[in-house]
């Protein structure tokens, strides 16, 4: 078990990631969280942002939405409503979605719809940031 | 005996019907594949979420959250997930039979036209009706669960059970009742859909967790997410059942039509043959009379 973390990322649409890694950095609600093997058991809410993982010399990134992370000694389970690999992000489509969501939000200031739009905006922003960082 | 023209006409009309049911079967089959995949894709998430919730409940100890409190049952509410269209065999009939046995004071929320019509016919109280299309996004479905949660928190309803058709396989769909709110014993949560996946690590009660921000805050964020996801999953399951049932119903309709065409063709040939025989007899008799 030493030196390995099992990272599982699940969304309602299926399992996005299931493999051994050495390190995970996730966007917790109270700041970035770096997880190494043997971390104390932790249950936390996460916010939309980047999930960075390291496995060997390989590094990888995922754009994730809001959700939860459960960490036991050698296992990290991430429950989120979105998880996208950078190569699957269609920048233009996301930009358009972001724009129309912002527009819609101006009209609806409160209520559950506004909350949903906010979440959509956060998710889109997370995707865009990851994509742009990748390119530079 | 019917004339050959009548039989021909009937054969033609049955053939047309067979063509239509065949087309509907094809459509349902392609929708079914998609719906089944979507329903199955959510299962790992369901298992992970149930595991997290039950392990959390084991540790936080006494939790107070409105979703967990049992209330006096004055206004139970039922969410009925039915189909919009018919032609799917006994799917809705079986589901609505269960629904019909509910106590008189139950109020209803429906997704799908058939359930709505049923509630109206029974003269029960309908709180809201939602339209769920085949390509419904999780956001659309979330409106249903959000509505239920709001009603529940405002005390207008005291419990929520969901009636849907559980997708077992393409040939078997079972009407099922799931109690959504209040959430019963968290410790005993099972993956409601299908057998548990192999290799899932059992929650270890001895682990001392850290919670961020805090146990109660994590829980109160997790519980609504759990409800939303449950409803989402149940709707997807119902969709998979609907398209499977429709495909099977349309397939048997097509088969029946084909059988009927065969029988009618046989009868048509018999009538035609007897017509020819009669004509020949008439000619022969006339000839003999003349000779």
Describe this structure in words.
- Chain A has a 5-stranded mixed sheet, with no helix packed on it. Chain A has a 5-stranded antiparallel sheet with strand order 4-3-6-7-10.
- The longest helix of chain A has 25 residues.
- Chain A starts with a strand and ends with a helix.
- Chain A has about 140 residues and is α+β, with helices and mostly antiparallel strands.
- Chain B folds into 2 domains: about 60 residues, Orthogonal Bundle (Helix Hairpins); about 200 residues, Pyruvate Kinase, Chain: A, domain 1 (3-Layer(aba) Sandwich).
- In chain B, about 60% of the residues lie in helices and about 15% in strands.
- In chain B, strand 1, helix 3 and strand 2 form a beta-alpha-beta unit.
- Chain B starts with a helix and ends with a helix.
- The chains are: A alpha+beta (about 140), B alpha/beta (about 290).
- The interface between A and B is medium-sized, with 28 and 34 residues.
- Strand 5 of chain A pairs parallel with strand 6 of chain B.
């Amino acid at each position: 078990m030493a030196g390995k973390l099992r990272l599982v990322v699940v969304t309602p649409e299926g399992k996005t990631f299931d493999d051994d890694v050495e390190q995970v950095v996730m966007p917790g609600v109270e700041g970035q969280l770096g997880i190494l093997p043997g971390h104390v058991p932790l249950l936390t809410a996460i916010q939309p942002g980047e999930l960075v993982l390291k496995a060997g010399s390989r590094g990888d990134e995922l754009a994730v939405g809001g959700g939860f992370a459960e960490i036991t000694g050698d296992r990290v389970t991430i429950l989120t409503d979105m998880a996208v690999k950078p190569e699957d992000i269609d920048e233009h489509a996301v930009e358009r979605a972001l724009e129309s969501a912002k527009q819609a939000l101006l009209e609806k200031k409160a209520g559950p719809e506004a909350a949903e739009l906010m979440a959509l905006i956060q998710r889109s922003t997370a995707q865009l940031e990851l994509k742009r960082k990748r390119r530079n | 005996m019917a004339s050959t023209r009548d039989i021909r006409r009937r054969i033609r009309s049955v053939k047309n019907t067979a063509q239509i049911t065949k087309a509907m079967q094809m459509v349902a089959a392609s929708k079914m594949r998609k719906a089944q995949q979507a329903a199955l894709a959510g299962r790992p998430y369901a298992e992970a979420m149930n595991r997290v919730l039950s392990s959390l409940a084991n540790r936080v100890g006494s939790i107070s959250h409105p979703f967990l409190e049992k209330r006096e049952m004055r206004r139970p509410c039922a969410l009925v997930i039915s189909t919009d269209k018919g032609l799917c065999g006994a799917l809705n009939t079986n589901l609505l039979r269960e629904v019909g046995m509910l106590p008189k004071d139950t109020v209803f929320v429906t997704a799908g036209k058939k359930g709505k019509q049923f509630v109206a016919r029974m003269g029960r109280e309908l709180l809201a009706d939602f339209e769920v299309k085949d390509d419904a996004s999780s956001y659309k479905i979330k409106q249903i669960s959000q509505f239920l949660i709001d009603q529940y928190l405002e005390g207008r309803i005291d419990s929520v059970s969901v009636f849907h058709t559980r997708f077992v396989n393409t040939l078997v769909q079972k009407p099922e009742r799931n109690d959504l709110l209040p959430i019963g014993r968290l410790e005993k949560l099972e993956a409601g859909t299908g057998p548990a996946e192999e290799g899932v690590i059992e929650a270890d009660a001895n682990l001392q967790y850290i919670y961020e921000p805090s146990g109660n805050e994590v829980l109160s964020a997790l519980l609504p997410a759990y409800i939303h996801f449950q409803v989402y999953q149940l709707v997807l399951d119902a969709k998979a059942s609907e398209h499977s049932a429709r495909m099977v119903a349309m397939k048997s309709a097509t088969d029946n039509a084909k059988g009927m065409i065969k029988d009618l063709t046989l009868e048509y040939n018999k009538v035609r043959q007897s017509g020819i025989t009669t004509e020949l007899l008439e000619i022969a008799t006339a000839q003999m009379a003349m000779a």
